[in-house]
Amino acid sequence: MKKLFILSIIIVMHTLCASQNKFGQSWLMGAGGIYAKFMGTTYQIDTSINLVLNSGKFFSFNKSNLCDSNGNIQLVTDGYNIMTKDGFYIEGGDTLCDEYHYLFEGGYSHFAQTGLFLPMQNGKCYFVNTYASQYMIDSIWSGPYFNINYPYPLDEMSYSTIDLYANNGEGKVTKRLQPLLTNELLSRSQMTACRHGDGKDWWLFKMAVDSNNIHSFLVTQDSIYNKGVQRMPFARTPWSRDGFDYLGQMTFNNDGTKMATTKLDYTDNIYIADFDRCYGNFSNYKKITAPHMYTQAYNYIDSATTGLCFSPNGQFLYVTKENFVLQYDLTDQTWFTVCANDTDATNFMRYAILNLAPDGKIYIGNWLGNGKQMSVIDNPNGKGANCNFCRKCFRVNSYFSLLTTPPCMPNYGLDAMPNCWPLSSEQLAISSEQLVVFPNPTSTIFEVRGSKKGSRKELYNSVGQLVLFTKENEIDVHNLSRGIYYLKVGNLSRKVVVE
Q1: Any idea what DSSP says for residue 343?
Q2: What's residue 490's pLDDT?
Q3: Which residue has the higher pLDDT, 369 or 28?
Q4: Sign of the four-CA dihedral 384, 404, 91, 38
Q5: Helix/strand/coil for 218
């Protein structure tokens, strides 16, 4: 009976993981309705749908989609509306933002990473997006309180809930525009999510615009909880053209242990941090600066970063500039120029945000979105020229092609972590009070207090792997790599930072 129960749990978990892997199997790639369905190392292009004609919307820098259990696109969004794959509004899916901003922008988002889908269990899905209030547009964007250092921020963030099974699988919005943030100065880009270590919930993050602060949320089956602001230890660099943050990107690596973020502010600053999927915390912040590059086609120094993406193995960070694609090696801190502007300014589309596809390749968006090709990095785990950059190799031949950017979506296939405990802030508080680690952080030895004498102590790394165990109260960690670890003693747990 016990074996049967364990087998049933394994089958359920396998089914759940397989379904999650399908959520991002197909991508909306073009402004008019170009779909790519990834199947192993190949893909199939569908150009039969014209979303512009069906919906009257243009899918600009922000686009996102969600697939069904078979990997076929079920829902798409332009940031302010939710539609079927054919471009028709689902029930309650139109004008999911401030109506004044909706009309001001022409009915669709012009900014990167504006909205995304976060699917849960039992057919429930959250749609999270950001936008500006009428006060922000009239008083800040063009009014008497205009600030040149951050002239066009957003100030509203909300979520809507979707029943994916309703209306014969077309979906239905069941709650609209539930507030998450109001009257906050928010970046127009830089919003993403990472699967919680429990494999069910989500961590959701949104960058501020007037500081290097990250608004953090825990998304569960029942609700979304505001977990406050995580503060980067870097002063924000004001620049008079910060209004160009309509491009920019926040992203996680493949296993969810590192985050990187940048925006189009012409400072070339990129921020990287370690991430803890169990507790939702960032640590070990680093700031790197992409090299300034001279572009002959435009005869100026390219000092802007527009997007970024980790390689599948996590060793490299690919960074797009207006006219260049760069590779940064996180192991030796070296830069490599993957490609440069090799044509005249009239024909060059410039580079925008990029994303890692299910086929293991990185697809690079076009800033102007006026062509039928998209560049690809075929071997992103390769160092330098071995990454095999292929210029304009993703091609379509449809009148309404207009390839813009890959969709804004998190890693839907990220698996649950073993021993990801505790799963709530309440449990963490109880565990922290009963189990004491001193000193913490440490680089050599820490002492465990508050546990029974002779009890087994287990130390796990940030991805849930057991790295050592002992019955001693003093634990030597000088041979371990810097980072976040978790000490487990019976039912108690404690985070340990090794410096």
Answers
A1: S
A2: 75
A3: 28
A4: negative
A5: strand
pLDDT of residue 432: 47
Tell the residue number behind the tokens 């300034």, with chain if given. 292
pTM for this structure? 0.81
Residue type for position 164: L
Distance CA 282, CA 192 (A): 14
Contact 305, 270 (CB under 8 A): yes
**pLDDT of residue 489 exceeding 50:** yes
Give CA–CA dist 64/81, Å, rounded.
11
Q: CA-CA distance, 458 to 443, in Å (whole number)?
A: 18
Ordered by where they begin, the domains of the chain are 22-395 (2.130.10.10), 425-498 (2.60.40.10)
Instruction: Select from 218, 197, 195, 124 the least CA-distant residue to 411.
Output: 195
Q: Is 432 helix (H, G, I), strand (E, B) or coil?
A: helix
Residue tagged 């979304």 (tokens):
224
Looking at residues 310-321, what average pLDDT do you find?
Answer: 95
Residue 100 has a pLDDT of: 95
Query: Measuring CA to CA, how many Å separate 344 from each of 236, 284, 323?
Result: 35, 41, 11
Q: How far apart are CA 46 and CA 35, in angstroms?
A: 5
Residue with tokens 């004044």: 100
Specify the 3-state DSSP secondary structure of 328: strand
Long-range contacts of the stretch 382-387 (C-beta < 8 A, 24+): 383/315, 383/316, 383/327, 383/329, 383/336, 384/327, 384/336, 385/336, 387/311, 387/316, 387/318, 387/327, 387/338
Cα separation of 222 and 176, whole Å?
A: 15
Sheet arrangement for strand 213-219: 115-119, 124-131, 154-163, 172-195, 202-208, 213-219, 224-231
What is residue 58's predicted lDDT score, i.e. its pLDDT?
A: 74
- pLDDT score for 33: 76
Q: Where are the alpha helices (DSSP H) in 149-239?
A: 166-169
Distance, C-alpha 53 to centroid of its chain? 30
Q: Which residue has the higher pLDDT, 24 or 309?
A: 309
Q: Work out the number of other CB atoms within 10 angstroms of the CB of residue 18.
A: 11
pLDDT digits (tens, 9 = 90+) for 186-239: 999 999 999 999 889 999 999 998 778 999 999 998 899 999 999 999 877 665
